[in-house]
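It is worth pausing here to work through a concrete case rather than discussing structure prediction in the abstract. The textbook approach is simple: state the sequence, then state the predicted structure, then interpret. We follow exactly that order.
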Amino acid sequence: MKYFKLFPISLCLVFCFLTLKVLSQKRIAVIGSSSAAGYFPVSSGYPKDSAWVYKIKKHFKDLGIIDTLFNLAQSSTDCFEGMPTSYIPPTGFNYRLPNPNINITRAVNLIPKPDVIIVNYPSNSYDWIANDQVITCLQIIKDSANAKNIPCFITTTQPRDGFSATERQKLKTLRDMILARFGEYAIDFFTDIVEEPGLTIKTQYAIGDGVHLNPEGHTVLKNKVLEKNIFLVIVPVRFGDLFAITQDKKIILKWKTLFETNINQFIIETSTDGIYFKELATIPSRFYSSTTQQYSFMHNTPENGENWYRIVAISASGLKLYSNIAIVKFNKSSSEKVNIMAVDNRIILSFKKIPKTAVIITFIDSQGKLFYKKQLEVINTKSYTLPVSDFPAGKYFIQCFFDNNKETGQFVKYY
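Step two, the predicted structure:
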């Protein structure tokens, strides 16, 4: 009898264990080009699961750590195709447009949500894309993942025999730049497979086409991912929202951290286009804190037009972590009646005075078409928050009508 009484309890414990195991399993998403896609020349006879992505998939699945690996990588793509869907590349040359089927916007919106994203653009188009543009692309891709609270790892370049000596040296320089920029979130796919001098692929890892690796080379890359311990990276800081508001011809930035561990300082960066940021100021951190900390900074000389801001936390080990981006429109000669701010997936309207009439807000998409219109309930209030998380990625122009006034603004939704 005791056996039969215990049997249902045992079943329940087994069920709970299996349920917790499923809930605790993680997911990886990968974006990139042919190396990640699992390309091998037909003549080689190797199956695609000989590639590093499928090797780490098998490794983590065999351990019961992951239940899904989303591989969005596609042959012949470059880092511009991996950019957020709303991104508009520079004019000139042959810059490619973001590909919404395989880019970071697709990756962060996968269901179920990835726990980690790995970005692998080793060499395509790097013979002519400027180094700083490559780093900018990779940074924006990583920022887009981090904005969704998804850790993102950036692989370095890989050697490519078909490039000229100058171009092969450029790949090495880019390796160094990626390692310096992304620190603990960079994975070195270059050093262990390169032959020096010459900067070509080591013979034992080359498949023979001057670009791709054989399965042994992919095992080296798999091991570099495993060395990174991608699921157990300790994040030294967690940002709250960054806000930017105009006040007396200046812009005030306010942000908070939910915790800090070995954070040396914060660098405030600004931009007029959301792509190229420059350092504005440096302020000290609390270094260590397990409670919410408030920070503020006043920008005394903002630019006319859009001002983009982000905060960079610098850890004691040199790791850089980024806040969300806040955008505020500034006009030195304007007597604006409302301040229009874009903060992540929200539009915040701050009225200088309580509106006396109905407030109408409209959004015009990048094609000049009316996308959204709404009458806002702002009775007896000087602030209104409008969620835009359901808006498709893209650039929008905002118009706000009230009390015979018309104020305008714009924002870019990256994902």
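Step three, interpretation. The CA atoms of residues 194 and 201 lie 5 Å apart. Residues 2-24 form the longest helix (23 residues).
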